[in-house]
Amino acid sequence: MSTQVENLVKLFGMTTQLITEDLTSVGERYALDLGHLPRSKPHESEYYPQFEQSVRVEAARMAAYYETFYCLEKSIRKLITEQMADDPDDWWATGKIPQAVNDEVKKRIKKEIDAGVTQRSTDKLDYTTFGELASIITANWEVFVSVFVSPKAVEKVLGSLNTLRAPIAHCTAFSDDEALRLRLTVRDWFRIMGSNKETEGAS
To answer: DSSP 3-state assignment of 186?
Structure first.
């Protein structure tokens, strides 16, 4: 599958998730159950109904956005790992990670260890933010030059995603404007990928 087709498939999937949010908004506005959201799981039956209905509706609405961010972060980290894996050395430990990113990741890992909780991952890349992922890409631009149209575009789009992620992380609702902004930013992300290959093919 070509890069362009693969990106279109991914964009379709994420757009579908965001359409779910639109349906939820309609259902909330007109007090309709459109049947597009999963029902509460059996193990939730004891506590879930105790939350206010308005909070439960809002949570269902925000779930589509969480799924979008989850898929984006996982796919971006996978892309970075695959691109950097061409280097036979341990790319994280050989100075290819900006020092500021490395320091922050160490702090987060130590914080989890000190808290006595199960570590989220053994992969240091799983401890990075969108902004830090952008720093890794731009610091190793020679590896990613064939993937993205420009380093500034990567910084801009991932910086926007980092900002938009805050409501998800802090359990607050998206406004309509921010929902639209996320949809456009997701499109921007796939738009800046594969542009160089398309240009080369046209020349």
So the answer is: helix
